[in-house]
Amino acid sequence: MVDKVTVEVIRHSLEYIAEEMGIRLRNSAYSPNIKERMDHSCAIFDSKGRVLAQAEHIPTHLGSMAWGVKETLKYMEREGIVLRQGDVLITNNPYISGTHLNDVLAIAPIIVGGKLLGYVASKAHYVDIGGKVPGSIASDSVEVLEEGLTIPPIKIMEKGALRRDLLKLILANVRSPEVIVGDLRAQIAAMDTGGRQVVGLAEKYGFETVVEAFNEIILYVEELTKTRIAKLPDFNVWAEDRLEDAGKKGEDAVIKVRVEKKGDRIRVDFTGSSPPVPAPLNTPLGVTIASTTFALKTILDPELPVNDGFYHVVEIKAPRKTIVYAEYPAPVGASIETAQRIVDVIYLALSKAIPEKVPAGSCGSMNNLLIGGVDYAEKKTWAFYETIAGGYGGRKGLDGVDASHCNMTNTMNTPIEVIERELPLLFTRYELRPRSGGAGQWRGGMGVIRAFRILADNAKVTVIGERVKYPPYGLLGGKPGKPAEYYVVKPSGKKIVLKSKDTIIVEKGDEVVIETAGGGGYGSPDKRDPRKIIEDYENELITLEDIVEEYGRPDIALKIRRKH
After folding, report:
1. What local confidence, expressed as pLDDT, does residue 563 receive?
2. For residues 414 and 426, is the Cβ–Cβ distance under 8 A?
3. Peptide bond connecting 152 to the previous residue in cis, omega within 30 degrees of 0
4. Are residues 407 and 541 in the same domain?
5. Residue partners of 243: CB distance under 8 A and separation at least 6
6. Quick one: pLDDT band at residue 376, thresholds 50, 70, 90?
7. Distance between the two ends of the chain, CA-based, in angstroms?
8. Residue 406: per-residue pLDDT
9. CA 364, CA 351: separation in Å to the nearest integer?
10. Domain limits for position 513
11. Into how many domains does the chain fold?
12. At what angle do helices 177-205 and 164-171 cross, to 10 degrees?
């Protein structure tokens, strides 16, 4: 039997190997979306497809890979696909890999002495995968075929050689092909790095010892998760929240959740959620699992390692024929927005049982921005994608974080200098959005204002967001955050207001403005420390009017007036 010290050494080694894979992927990538925003994730699996270790990357990717790799292996078995030394398989089929078409899942086998030890895997968001709009996440898609090229599980490399015929097929269907091929090669490099490192562990400790350690690592996380769950009181709570503009006529969709904790187990049930919608908000089961995993992990223990053992004690029920279990041909491009709402609604339910552990509503959106166009003189197309930060919700004892890529996003900021160097855009504003955080004993974080002017003759801009109609909620008397606003300002000064999911053709000189939502406040505003109120005023985050109307403190406003 393998000793516990060896198990811990192997467990931490796997985690660092996953991190090293991510570093190599980022450093080798071509697109700003990966090399700057780090919109990618890496993980390691055993021969059964059970997740063993994952780097601290994108929650949507990580949770979905736990399901997606198993589904891919099932597909391979049905189709008679066998991965051998030097092979790399890719797929972006959302009903198998678990997210949307832009996220390309790559898997490579770990072979030791002719025997399969496990798999290394990565998921990377490609800036474009074809479809009706640049960036591929169409605001009005009603079927997945409008969202781009679907790649079934297929080998992109065989025996160490790149399949150029398949690569040509993919590149012929995407914008910015030179960027896409660079990102694909970066994924392959990451697979190579991870595979060689895990083989090194097997050579050092022995194949059988490492396999035994894999089983112990999964058992360890199962028992640790049970321990964390058992510390909470038993409860049975429910909540619901809405997704905006989810139907043909702008109707909302509802996500309902019931969270039941009993002993050392938790059950999360989405029964009662809306049926599939004719909009890109349908969520593959992988995304629903990922969002639920994130919400529970942050409450149970932010440092809790997550592997297959976590799902032995956490049950997730997402009924088929609902918005939280997308099946072909439902469009899924904006399922990343539904992911944010799933987290919000789980937190809202948990606030009824353990409010001291739950933040108020965050900005509730990834604030997706997609833009691209055609350069006819150069005979090429271009595309750009990013998510934009918002305000995090206030928490017991802490204000919400300003300008944060909240919850399921977890990406970096795309530097303005990089965008202006590579694309025909000129940024005019990038700043905190004053007065956007909800008032509270601990206020919500402030959103941001990000604006740029179009330098190309024209371009197509798509925004995919949320919390325009329904602001982020406050908790325990805290006030809601300010809703998001998206709009275009013409050179004449005319303002064109965009819906939460919208596409518009813009021309040279037009200014695109994204104002993201602030987080909700936590606790009654009249309990806020007066020093914090004054500090927010001096930082120009709130006004004297806010001090009076939002916080009910005319005495502080009068003191400030006398001082100035």
Report:
1. 80
2. no
3. no
4. no
5. 252, 253, 254, 255, 281, 323, 337, 338, 341, 466
6. confident
7. 74
8. 92
9. 16
10. 359-525
11. 3
12. 140
Cis before 329? omega within 30: yes
Q: Which of 220, 248, 263 is the last residue of a domain?
A: 220
Which one, of 397, 432, 363, 403, lies nearest residue 522 by Cα? Answer: 397
DSSP state letter for 364: -
Handedness of CA 36, 409, 49, 96 (dihedral sign): negative
What count of other Cβ atoms lies within 10 Å of the Cβ of residue 396? 16
Q: Domain for residue 248, yes or no?
A: no
Q: Are residues 470 and 552 in the same domain?
A: no
Instruction: Compute the CA torsion angle 247, 462, 67, 264 (nearest 10 deg).
Output: -70
Domain end (from 177, 196, 220): 220
Average pLDDT over residues 492-514: 97
Run of H or E residues at 44: strand 40-46
What is the pTM (predicted TM-score) of this model? Answer: 0.96
Confidence at residue 1, expressed as pLDDT on a 0 to 100 scale: 82
pLDDT in tens, 39-94: 999 999 999 999 999 988 888 888 899 999 999 999 999 999 999 999 999 999 99
Q: How far apart are CA 300 and CA 266, in angstroms?
A: 11
Same domain flag for 559 and 441: no
State the DSSP code for 527: G
Rounded to whole angstroms, the Cα distance separating 332 from 336 reads 8
**How do residues 380-427 score in pLDDT, each as one tens digit?**
888 999 999 999 999 999 999 999 999 998 888 889 999 999 899 999
Continuous H helices in 59-133: 59-79, 94-97
Q: What is the pLDDT confidence band of residue 564, given thresholds at 50, 70 and 90?
A: confident
CA distance 482 to 436: 5
As given in the structure block, the two tokens for residue 460 are: 């197509």
DSSP codes of every residue in 469-492: SSPPPPBTTPPPPPPPEEEEE-TT
What's the CA gap between 122 and 62, in Å, rounded?
9
Task: Label each residue of 196-228 as H, E or C.
Answer: HHHHHHHHHHCHHHHHHHHHHHHHHHHHHHHHH
Contacts of 233 by beta carbon, 8 Å cutoff, 6+ apart:
261, 353, 354
Cα–chain center distance at 527: 34
> Residue 139, SS3?
coil
Average confidence (pLDDT) over 1-16: 94
Structure tokens that stand for 173 in this block: 């269907």
User: 3-state class of 543 per DSSP?
Assistant: coil
- CA dist 540 and 552 (Å) reads 18
Q: How many Å apart are CA 452 and CA 414, to the nearest integer?
A: 13
Measuring CA to CA, which residue among 539, 544, 546, 549 is closest to residue 559? 544
**DSSP summary character for residue 318:** -
